[in-house]
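Changelog note: in this version the structure field was regenerated for every chain. One regenerated record is shown below for reference.
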Amino acid sequence: MTVLRIADAAAAAIGFTSDSIAGQEASPLLSASTLDPDLAAQSALARYLDETPHSSGWVALDDSGSAVAVLAAQLELADENHPGYTYMPPAYAYVPLSCWGVSSAYDGEKFLPQLVEQVAKDARELGIHRLLVQTRPHDWVAGGLWRQLGLMPDTILAGRRSTPPLAVSDDIDIRTVTGDDEDALVSLAFEEHDYHALNTGTGTRANQVVGPTRRAVREWIDDQAAGTDNAFVAVNAAGQVVGSIALHTVTLPSESPGRNYYPALYGYIGLTSVTAEARGHGVGRALTARALTTFAARGIEHVLLHYVDDNSLSRPFWNRMGFSPLVVTLGGDIL
């Protein structure tokens, strides 16, 4: 067995990844995948073929030169200029669903630890110890392989259709955001950030600097004003903001490997926050209902979001709202 960087065994790595993508079941949100696996493999491995900085891509070859396992990780340092600063760990290696595969469970047990060690060598040079790997929720073989190496469920990508609508109480006042809501939205977001940092195992930061969150909030307000995307707040009888939800519309490029798992066009529910005092009174449900009806009115059939697996508040809530897991990200400090 030989382990090489993907750039040094490009044809074998691309062919193996193409076959892996072709063999994966399409998302339950899709009637069938229209993805070209060869284009998707090229897209998934592009940064490793080009040896882009902060990339660690490896392929295991058997004695005949055929690929039997691939593992390719993006090495991320999430400083305050990084798009994931507010919701990701400070440093991590990230392996998308299309960037790893094994030819069999036997080969996974045999070769995956060696590929992980190669990624670990690159990651440690940057001070990275946390590994995040995407898997499918009912792929017990993949889940078992990674659990043997010390990874556990971290975040869940879940989805549902935008219809039928949710039944909600008329007593909760939901309106679109305005510029006057900026400080309240920042405060809500920080409450959410600190809750995740202190009460889950995701490794995200508490006491974040305010700049990235304020920039994100201003984007929600600007997008709402421009009509390109939407954001809503819930207000109490005194007119105080007690909850918020940010909506985004996502279109995947034709060559994106994500088209095997997600619709080409979907709505995404971003940061959703409810103050501690307002929880349990239907505020989150009312915000979610407004999100679903907004997407449905725009002709967007599918809605996706992320939640943290060990968040005792969000996981049961989103399950009650009808969202089912599509992709499970496993994580752990194993590098």
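Spot check on this record: Residues 2-150 form a domain with the Aminopeptidase fold (CATH 3.40.630.30). The chain has eight helices and 13 strands.
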